[in-house]
Structures are given as structure tokens and as C-alpha cells.
């Protein structure tokens, strides 16, 4: 049954492309250097987002993604930034929050970063996938909720907080 639903959703259902303008808006995407996060960054730039922040563990990989985005969307007015955050470290998440709360606005927080490992590893006294995919993801959400609310109140907008969750990445060959 799963396979039939998957085939139907991929080949029959046509999801309309978004047309809402994100002009003037600031977007943070964790794991924005690859996969769904990178594709989301493309869409936000296509929809005229003013500032897209790729929040990634590896600044080297993030900078490579930033360059590709800037080459694909050479329109002036877009700012693509790379900020480091390691979700296996609560201190890194808190440090990221300290930097992000100084932003003039935060309209979208897309929490996409995640890991899947075959080895048992410990991070912050928990199994690493729990730390990264659950605890740190929601720590970041809770910390930045106040910034999203502040933006909504000051600019009269509706902020967006999205948590990406899927096990289908095991079928991808990115």
C-alpha cells in the first residue's frame, strides 16, 4: 500500500508551485546546503526572499551551496548567508540563537537538518540521532519562537515554523 501511495504522490498528484512573494523576508534553513533544505532555499530565492541563511554544520559545504545559489539567482537584493550550527551540541544551538536574535526580523524557520547513522554515538548524553533530530531541533524552535513572534507583532506578518521529518532520505541518491 505504501508503494502505491508513494507512486501516486510522485507521478499523479501535481502540487502547484507557490507564488507568494517573500520579498523583504528573512529565512533560516537548517541543513540548507543539501537535499530538501537546498531545494527550499532555491524556492525562497525564486519567491524573492531578501535574506536566506543556510544554517549548517560544515561552513565549507554551506559556502559551496551559497555560491551555487548566488550563481543560479544573480538578482540583486538577495542576500545568502552561511551560519554555522552543530545540532549535536546544545552550546552550538544556543550560540546560533544568540546570533539569530539580533536579526532585524525572522519570518521563516525551516528546521530541516538531521542525521542518520548506523553506529551508536552519544551526543549531549543521548544517542546522537535523538540529540540532533529531536532535542536540538526543538531547542532551536523554542529559542527562536520569540523572534518569530516579535517579527509577527512588529511587521504584522504571519511567521512560519516548519520541521522537516522523513525516513524517505534512505531511498535518495543525492
UniProtKB/TrEMBL annotation:
Keyword Oxidoreductase: yes
Molecular-function annotations in GO: oxidoreductase activity
Record InterPro entries: NAD(P)-bd_dom_sf, SDR_fam
Residue intervals passing through the bilayer: none
Lineage top rank: taxon: Eukaryota
Annotated coiled-coil segments of the chain: none
Pfam families in UniProt: adh_short
Protein keywords: Oxidoreductase
Protein name: Similar to short-chain dehydrogenase/reductase family protein
Organism: Botryotinia fuckeliana (strain T4)
Amino acid at each position: 500500500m505504501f508503494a502505491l501511495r508513494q507512486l501516486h504522490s510522485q507521478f499523479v498528484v501535481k502540487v502547484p508551485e507557490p507564488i507568494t512573494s517573500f520579498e523583504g523576508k528573512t529565512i533560516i534553513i537548517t541543513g540548507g546546503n543539501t537535499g530538501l533544505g537546498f531545494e527550499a532555499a532555491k524556492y525562497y530565492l525564486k519567491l524573492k526572499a531578501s535574506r536566506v541563511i543556510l544554517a549548517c554544520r560544515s561552513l565549507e559545504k554551506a559556502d559551496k551551496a551559497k555560491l551555487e545559489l548566488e550563481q543560479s539567482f544573480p538578482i540583486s537584493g538577495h542576500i545568502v548567508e552561511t551560519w554555522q550550527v552543530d545540532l549535536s551540541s546544545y552550546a552550538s544551538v544556543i550560540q546560533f540563537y544568540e546570533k539569530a536574535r539580533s536579526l532585524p526580523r525572522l519570518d521563516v524557520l525551516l528546521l530541516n537538518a538531521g542525521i542518520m547513522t548506523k553506529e551508536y554515538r552519544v551526543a549531549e548524553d543521548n544517542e546522537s540521532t535523538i540529540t540532533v533530530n529531536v532535542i536540538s531541533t526543538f531547542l532551536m524552535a523554542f529559542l527562536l519562537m520569540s523572534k518569530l513572534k516579535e517579527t509577527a507583532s512588529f511587521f504584522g506578518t504571519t511567521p512560519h515554523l516548519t520541521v522537516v521529518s522523513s525516513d524517505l532520505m534512505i531511498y535518495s541518491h543525492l
